[in-house]
Specification:
The complex is a heterodimer of chains A (131) and B (390). Chain A is built from 5 helices and 5 strands; from the N terminus they run E-H-E-H-E-H-E-H-E-H. Chain A is of the alpha/beta class and 131 residues long. Chain A has a single domain, classed as Rossmann fold (3-Layer(aba) Sandwich). A 5-stranded parallel β-sheet of chain A has the order 2-1-3-4-5. In chain A, helix 1 links the parallel strand 1 and strand 2. Chain B is α+β, with helices and mostly antiparallel strands and 390 residues long. Chain B has a 5-stranded antiparallel β-sheet with strand order 2-1-5-4-3, with helices on both faces. Chain B has a 5-stranded mixed β-sheet with strand order 7-9-10-12-11, covered by helices on one side. Chain B has a two-stranded antiparallel sheet with strand order 6-8. The longest helix of chain B has 69 residues. The radius of gyration of chain B is 45 Å and the shape is elongated. Classes of the chains: A alpha/beta (131), B alpha+beta (390). Chains A and B meet through helix 1 of A and helix 6 and helix 7 of B.
């Protein structure tokens, strides 16, 4: 069974270090990658779409509070660049502070399918890869 | 008639006609209101002593005169109206009595009519209300004065309200920022704990390193918090005359190792050498923050250049810091630039409280900071320092 592709976008490099460890210590490496900068992530997605569309992420784990671009702006930009039904990527919001309003706002995006308060369970990535 | 203690207050004599006449007369003569009887043509046919005393005229002058001649000009019409009302029922009117000294006394007249031997008469009781008027006027003045005070207090209140609202907003942002910044390393630590449960020993060593890192961030954030709180309630007791440029030079000297490491050039151009009454610690701290930002947020591959100038602009000393760094996208971040725990770049580590603290220090006595920036070109901060009163 082919695995899903996952991209994790989070500006906290300490958190990203941990994601990288999980990816490295398991057999997820060909399928999961991380990105610290939302802008770079967008560039990467454009590149993948053009060159390796089969590796285009099925799931994006997305932080909200990021310095260059807020997570919601990232989703809007994503919708513009990769509209449905060509890309059916789902977004999973990961955030460290629990603000009810943000949660409600997040689910207004049809692509957002989950809202997680950090830390995400360590087996979450594995489940996403196989679902 | 000798008085006895057990003598009844009213005797039989009081009730015969003569006795009653005497009693009424005494009552009217001695009462402390003016009492008059007018003929149908408004001629005074009787006046008591009190009315004479009130106006200062002799009784002879009053009796036989037309009552209207005793009134201030202009009051006669209102009086005539009331007196014709009095033919049907008790009437009242306010009027101004003329006195012998050509003054006027505000009074209320209570008028009723009666008929004796087919002739109509009017009985008038005049009450002097100058005291009430005075009290009223006094009250009015007081009310007017209080209204002004209340209006001023209201204005102040709405100012305070605005201040509170913005303080609340700041606090709100602050709490959110703190919640996020404290929560993030804690979440990491929880994740590390979960990861280490299943990890083999060689992974555990790496995870332990991560524990240390996250504890350090937690520590740094908490220290930053304490620093912000200390700035908030620092009393600026010491504000001697200080030489701004001298302080700038001292700060640059203290930071020379960092400036050298970044291969940076810092130039000072001053247009004024004046001294200012300000808090030395604040200026030192603001300069350090500005220089440190210029060094931190430099454009990759371009050695930082920082120009510092000082000039006078109206009541402000303007200390400017212009760099050639990565710049800030003000369209995107302009509103957040002085909020605590904000970072506009993912390249550099920082707590994101420097500008917040600098701005808080400068604005304590109504100074402010202006920012101009162009991404990838550079940023210029202009710090408007207002002098403390010495």
């Amino acid at each position: 069974m082919s695995k899903n592709h996952i991209l994790i976008i989070d500006d906290d490099n300490y958190t990203v270090d941990l994601y990288n460890m999980i990816i490295e210590w398991s057999d997820y490496k060909p399928y999961a990658s991380t990105e610290l900068s939302a802008l770079k992530a967008m560039e990467k997605l454009t590149e993948l779409d053009a060159e390796n569309p089969e590796q285009f992420p099925d799931y994006i784990l997305l932080d909200l509070r990021m310095p260059e671009m807020h997570g919601f702006d990232f989703i809007r930009k994503f919708e513009e660049n990769f509209p449905q039904p060509k890309k059916n990527t789902e977004f999973i919001i990961t955030t460290s502070s629990v603000i009810q309003k943000e949660k409600e706002k997040a689910f207004q995006f049809s692509r957002v399918t989950d809202f997680l308060i950090k830390p995400i369970p360590t087996d979450y990535l594995g489940k996403l890869l196989d679902c | 008639m000798p008085e006895k203690e057990n003598q009844p207050l009213l005797t039989k004599e009081h009730f015969d006609l003569k006795g009653r006449d005497y009693m009424y007369r005494a009552l009217i003569e001695n009462m402390s209101e003016g009492a008059l009887v007018l003929s149908k043509q408004h001629t005074v046919v009787y006046s008591n002593k009190h009315f004479a005393a009130l106006t200062g005229f002799d009784l002879q002058r009053i009796i036989g005169s037309n009552f209207k001649t005793l009134l201030r000009e202009g009051d006669a019409a209102a009086f005539s109206k009331s007196i014709s009302d009095a033919l049907n029922h008790q009437a009242y009117c306010q009027l101004q009595l003329l006195t012998k000294n050509k003054e006027t006394i505000p009074a209320i007249a209570s008028i009723s009519s009666f008929i004796v031997e087919d002739k109509t008469y009017f009985s008038i009781i005049i009450s002097d209300i100058s005291l009430q008027k005075k009290i009223e006027e006094g009250l009015e003045n007081q009310v007017a004065a209080h209204s002004l005070e209340i209006a001023a207090a209201n204005r102040r209140l709405s100012e305070i309200n605005n201040e509170l609202r913005s303080a609340n907003q700041i606090l709100d942002n602050f709490v959110h920022a703190v919640a996020h910044d404290l929560r993030a390393p804690v979440a990491n630590l929880k994740m590390i704990e979960e990861m280490s449960e299943k990890a083999p020993d060689e992974h555990k060593i790496k995870l332990f390193q991560k524990v240390r890192e996250n504890i350090n961030i937690l520590d740094t954030t908490l220290k930053g918090l304490v620093q912000i709180i200390e700035t908030q309630d620092k009393k600026e007791i010491n504000r001697p005359e200080i030489d701004i440029i001298k302080i700038v030079k001292e700060v640059l000297f203290n930071m020379s190792a960092r400036i050298k490491a970044k291969n940076a050039t810092v130039t000072i151009k001053k247009e004024t050498g004046e001294k200012i009454n300000h808090v030395e610690g604040y200026i030192r701290s603001v300069v350090r923050n500005m220089v440190s930002n210029a060094l931190k947020y430099s454009m990759p591959g371009r050695p930082p250049e920082l120009k510092i100038t000082l000039k006078k602009e109206k009541e402000y000393f303007v200390l400017s810091f212009s760099d050639n760094g990565i710049g800030i996208d003000l369209k995107k971040h302009g509103g957040n630039i002085f909020k605590p725990f904000q970072r506009f770049s993912s390249n550099e580590k920082g707590m994101g409280i420097g500008l917040h603290i600098s701005n808080a220090m400068v604005s304590r006595n109504n100074g402010f900071i202006k920012v101009k920036s162009e991404p990838e070109k550079g940023t210029s901060f202009r710090v408007y320092l207002k002098e403390y009163e010495s």
